[in-house]
Amino acid sequence: MIHKEGDKYYLDDKVVDANLIAALAKALTAPANPELSLDDLGVTPAWLKAHASSVAQYFAETRIVGNGGPTHPVHQALLESTFADPEIIDKEVFSLFDNRHYSCSDCKRYLLSVKTSVTFEDGTWLDVQSSSQFPYMLPWHLPGSGTGVIAYNADISRAIAALMPENSTNRSRLAGEQLDRALGAAVMMQVERKAQLLDIESKTGGTFSALRSRYTIESASIGNYGDPVLRKPEDDHEPDEPTLDLRLNASADLPTTSSTTKCFCGT
Fold first, then answer.
1. Residue range 77-134, pLDDT digits in tens
2. Residue 12 contacts by C-beta under 8 Å, 6 or more apart in sequence?
3. CA distances in angstroms from 154 to 37, 136, 137, 148, 212, listed in the order given
4. Which residue from 74, 147, 214, 228 has the highest number of Cβ atoms inside 10 Å of its Cβ?
5. What is the pTM of this model?
6. For 111, which DSSP code?
7. Which domain holds residue 167?
8. How far is CA 167 from CA 12, 21, 159, 174, in A?
9. Spatial distance between the Cα atoms of 74 and 56, rounded to a whole number of angstroms
10. 121: Cβ–Cβ under 8 A, 6 or more apart, which residues?
11. d(CA 140, CA 146)
12. Would residue 232 count as lying in a domain?
């Protein structure tokens, strides 16, 4: 409970910066954002560039399960360049505000909850509350007439977090302190898939270039894929040769009844 005595604000017997109180009042009375805004979240090209290196370093010790093989470390350089790319990251930001991103079929989740009430000197008041698990605990609910207002205003979250003592429940989530790492984790598999494609492309000459004129390459791998229909060794006792396994999406202008083609091509 923060209260005002004279011209100062106090939390118990400690003076609270009046600028933090003003910031909260300003955030609560600002127009409500009905949907997410990248600028409001602070996810700008400059922010991505500033955090790219630290995100890549944070995931440096992460091990990725190989395609049927041993684990390998994250491709740091590729993760860093991907994180700094607004065109890629901007799309991933919205996935962090999708419940499917947090699905958990075999664990229990406790309800996160924050409620803030502000009473002004003229007797008017404002309430804001959230039980969101998303970054910044967005969106906020501002009870009022009818069904109230939903606000995707990250400034509300930041202002509340700034007034909370360190280690307070939900403070880190409200402040968006882990947003960069959450985005890094969101693009991790995309980065590894890209790294795998680059590696296989380097081993297959101009194969990928020829295919890209007619297909989108969804995935690729090299292994001993014996297929009794598409390819069969002349000698049953002879081991299969390494084979390029591709999953392709056909271009829209190609006459095909299927959007996906699986190709076994001997290397």
1. 889 999 999 998 998 999 999 877 666 555 565 566 889 999 988 888 889 999 888 9
2. none
3. 9, 6, 8, 18, 41
4. 74
5. 0.71
6. P
7. 2-186
8. 17, 20, 16, 12
9. 9
10. 4
11. 16
12. yes
